[in-house]
């Protein structure tokens, strides 16, 4: 089974998958997400930036391995 989407359609497809995954996490674990958000708010900006860069790196590696 192949999915024939343009690049823009593919981008929107993956964005929708991210929204679905986020929604599932917030729906199943609302109390944990509150604790996690409070933890993130307690971090300074440099630590949040490092965490963001780490996720960008991991996402890039995963995309490289897939394609």
Structure description:
- By secondary structure, the protein is mainly alpha-helical.
- The chain has one domain (7-66).
- It contains three helices and no strands.
- The chain has helices spanning 7-28, 30-42, 45-66.
- It is flat, with a radius of gyration of 16 Å.
- The model has no long low-confidence stretch (mean pLDDT 90).
Kindly report the oligomeric state of this protein. single chain
- What series of H and E elements makes up the topology? HHH
* Dominant shape: flat
Distance between the termini: 17 Å
Mean pLDDT, rounded to whole units? Answer: 90
> Total number of helical segments?
3
The beta-strand count equals 0
Sketch the major β-sheet. none
Please tell me the total number of domains.
1
Rg to the nearest angstrom? Answer: 16 Å
Structure in a nutshell:
This protein is an all-alpha fold.
Descriptive labels:
67 residues; 3 helices; 85% helix; flat
Describe the SSE topology.
Blueprint: H1 7-28, H2 30-42, H3 45-66
């Amino acid at each position: 089974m192949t999915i024939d989407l343009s690049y823009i359609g593919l981008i929107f497809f993956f964005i929708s998958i991210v929204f679905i995954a986020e929604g599932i996490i917030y729906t199943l674990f609302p109390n944990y997400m509150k604790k996690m958000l409070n933890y993130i708010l307690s971090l300074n900006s440099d630590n949040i930036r490092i965490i963001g860069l780490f996720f960008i790196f991991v996402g890039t590696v995963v995309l490289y391995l897939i394609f």
